[in-house]
């Protein structure tokens, strides 16, 4: 579920960074990026929406806004901007070769899928390096795990809470909502395990694990924002 104009915000974000020279990028302050892994129905969009408002309010360099990227938005960025080509010069550094190593194993097995995963991986990595981005899903926490500006969140919630959320968002029956949750969770688990060789619920992969059944979306966003500002104090007006 996306707010109207979400992709326009992504386009402005990408175009703003693409206009800058590499030297300008080196000189500018590096802002954090946030990755969010989530159980289906745990409210990642709702938390992200609130989190962006808080971070925009407290971040230095207010002209550059925090921007939300999920699977659909990342795919549109790849299609419309061909981001991996625009920023390919950033991808030559050997310290990021472990990411390519992980997906190279797919080459020759599923070439069409390999191509998409490679582009998605490169795109997520560059968005992470740009900073002031919230990246939801697609193994973003693993892809950006070596970036010093990355902060990783896992959102969970009790099953009944998630069922109610999915029912409210999509208008599903309880049965259909439960089926949707089971299928989505399995697909996400399989994606991370197959392509990056990790278990998605490995708690050691995250800075914070937040239960949105115990904290509402406003509270969850506030906790994350405060943690980010403590972790990266130079980037925020306290």
Could you describe the 3D structure shown?
- The chain has a single domain (29-230), classed as Rossmann fold (3-Layer(aba) Sandwich), CATH 3.40.50.300.
- Helix content is 55%, strand content 10%.
- The protein has helices at residues 6-18, 22-27, 44-58, 71-81, 83-86, 97-104, 111-130, 140-143, 159-170, 174-196, 217-231; strands spanning 33-38, 67-69, 133-136, 150-156, 208-211.
- It has a 5-stranded parallel beta sheet with strand order 2-3-1-4-5, with helices on both faces.
- Helix 1 (6-18) packs across helix 4 (71-81) and helix 6 runs antiparallel to helix 7.
- It starts with 5 loop residues before the first helix and ends in a 7-residue tail after the last helix.
- Residues 83-111 have low confidence and may be disordered.
Low-confidence stretches: 83-111
CATH architecture term: 3-Layer(aba) Sandwich
Largest sheet: 5 strands, parallel
Task: Give the strand order, joined by hyphens, for the main sheet.
Answer: 2-3-1-4-5
State mean pLDDT (0 to 100 scale).
Answer: 78
Radius of gyration: 18 Å
CATH superfamily: P-loop containing nucleotide triphosphate hydrolases
CATH C-level label: Alpha Beta
Overall number of structural domains: 1
Report helical residue fraction: 55-70%
Q: N-to-C SSE series?
A: HHEHEHHHHEHEHHEH
| CATH topology term | Rossmann fold
The span between the termini is 32 Å
Specify the overall morphology: globular
Judged by helices, strands and strand pairing, the structural class is alpha/beta
% residues in beta strands: 5-15%
The tally of beta strands, per DSSP, is 5
Number of helices: 11
